[in-house]
Amino acid sequence: MKPHYSVIVVGGGIVGATAACALAVEGIDVALLDVHNPVRQWPDDERADIRVSALTRASQNILKAVGVWDAMAERNIEPYDQMHVWDASSAGLLHFDAADTKYDVLGHIVENRVTVAALWDQLESLPSASLLCPAKVTDLSCHIDKAEITLEDGSVLTADVLIAADERDSVLRQMAGIQTTGWEYKQDGLVATISTEKSHQNTAWQRFLPEGPLALLPLKNGDCSIVWTLKHETAQEYITLADDEFLQKLEQASEGVLGGMLSVGPRGAFPLRFQTAQQYTVEHFVLVGDAAHAMHPLAGQGANAGLLDAAAIAEIIIKTQQKGRPIGSRKSLREYEQWRKGDNLAMMSSMDVINKMYTQENEVFKQVRGLGMQVINQTNILKNYFNQYAMGLRADLPELANKD
Ligand SMILES: Cc1cc2nc3c(=O)[nH]c(=O)nc-3n(C[C@H](O)[C@H](O)[C@H](O)COP(=O)(O)OP(=O)(O)OC[C@H]3O[C@@H](n4cnc5c(N)ncnc54)[C@H](O)[C@@H]3O)c2cc1C
To answer: Taking a C-beta distance cutoff of 8 angstroms, is the pair 226, 194 a contact?
Structure first.
């Protein structure tokens, strides 16, 4: 362990490990710290883990550019070429098809552990990356010329830039004195891996129900990952139901779209929150990923937004270094904040509006909502806009996200 690094990343989940990789492939001296060593090996025939992400084309581009997409594909990624969204309380329906775009697929469903394992393997092979793990930060101070952290074993490390990617309840964010704004949704995202009677047809299915949406996402071996938004109390009840009772509720909630529900693995429930950090940066310190923003998972955008943060901060640091300027200057870190905060807030707010729209009980509103979906579904220009947005392809992307 060295006493000083150009960049230290705290938190080696999808977002932090991507930021570290993007910097290390360009030869920037970076250390990645995590409290846990991630799991990097598991039996080939093991059922998919419950934590998955629908990764957009923009995210695929970033992961390709940092050299891990092929290794992820070797482990397992499942493409989806269609998306079918329908409303339980109206005739509203939306159908997206990759055939209407210039791409073969709309995105991929990937277990989070697959992405993290590929990133850590890649970091291990890069000479300018150091993996410091397990390591726990006990103190942080952000000075005018550097950021300084103390680890549990008493060692002190400094960096020109400290990137905090240490999850939604970020300890580093609190240590930096950055406040958050937001609220609890009083909904949980119930997740599990299931098998179904009918094929998932490489389609991402989503049905809006009064308590929140149910997503059935295609996985390997014909399995599906479910993300079922429910009121907190309902989720707590469903998590403890016997498998056959749970599968019955699921079949009903999915309107039998994939036929009978055959089996379910372990279930988990994650309380959902809208949360934004009031600032993304202080002296020599930036927030990325869930440490900066937590959003409703109804459109599966949290990890995708975090990957754009990772690509953006890496791009700014690399370009600043190439110009021979100090990478931790206030100017360059403020540039990152201005670039990403507005985009993330826009994304989070639209998820919030959609969640509110679909949990409304007013009958007239439901019919108008259904009509709105039909109009979008039948209007090519609107449909294309939503398609592009869902694929993460929009203006002002970091260069890594644009490299098709
Ligand atoms: C139900 C559900 C479904 C979702 N589905 C999708 C989806 O389909 N698509 C999508 O894009 N997003 C999805 N998301 C969001 C996505 O999971 C998160 O946005 C993403 O995992 C955040 O990544 P991260 O790297 O910022 O944080 P995390 O994945 O939380 O990683 C944080 C890392 O920091 C480490 N750490 C924590 N504290 C410390 C510390 N003090 N010191 C050092 N290390 C520390 C942890 O060990 C961990 O490795 C979903 C979320 C939920 C709840």
So the answer is: yes
Residue to mutate, 52, 53, 57, ligand 1, most ligand atoms under 8 Å from C-beta: 53
16 CB-side CA count, 13 A? 29
- The answer as to whether 140 is a domain residue is yes
Q: Work out the average pLDDT over 208-220.
A: 96
Does the model's pTM come out above 0.90?
A: yes
Q: How far is the CA of 294 from the centre of ligand 1 (A)?
A: 9
Q: Within 13 Å of residue 242, how many CA atoms lie on the same side as its CB? A: 2
Instruction: Report the atom number in ligand 1 closest to the C-alpha of 15.
Output: 25
Q: Could you tell me if 162 and 313 are in contact, meaning their C-beta atoms sit under 8 angstroms apart?
A: no
Q: What residues make up the domain containing 119?
A: 4-182+273-402
pLDDT tens, position by position, 85-99: 999 999 899 999 999
The tally of domains found in the chain comes to: 1
- List, as own/partner pairs, every contact residues 318-326 make where C-beta atoms lie below 8 angstroms and the sequence separation is at least 24, other chains included: 318/22, 318/23, 318/26, 318/28, 321/6, 321/28, 326/160
- What is the Cα 10 distance to its own chain's centre? 17
Distance in angstroms (rounded) separating the CA atoms of residues 226 and 192: 5
Is 77 a member of any domain? yes
Contacts of 47 (CB under 8 A, 6+ apart): 193, 223, 265
Residues with beta carbon inside 6 Å of ligand 1? 10-16, 33-36, 53-54, 112, 136-137, 165-167, 171, 189, 191, 227, 270, 289-290, 297, 300-304, 306
Closest residue to atom 15 of ligand 1, CA basis:
302
Confidence of residue 361 (pLDDT cuts 50, 70, 90): confident
Nearest Cα to Cα of residue 25 among 249, 361, 264, 315: 315
Integer-rounded Cα Rg, in Å, for the chain is 21
Answer for the pair 37, 376: CB distance below 8 angstroms, yes or no: no
Q: Give a yes or no: residue 152 inside a domain.
A: yes
Report if residue 248 sits inside a domain.
no
CA of 252 to the centre of ligand 1 (A): 30
CATH of the domain at 312: 3.50.50.60
Which residue bears the tokens 């949290």? 302
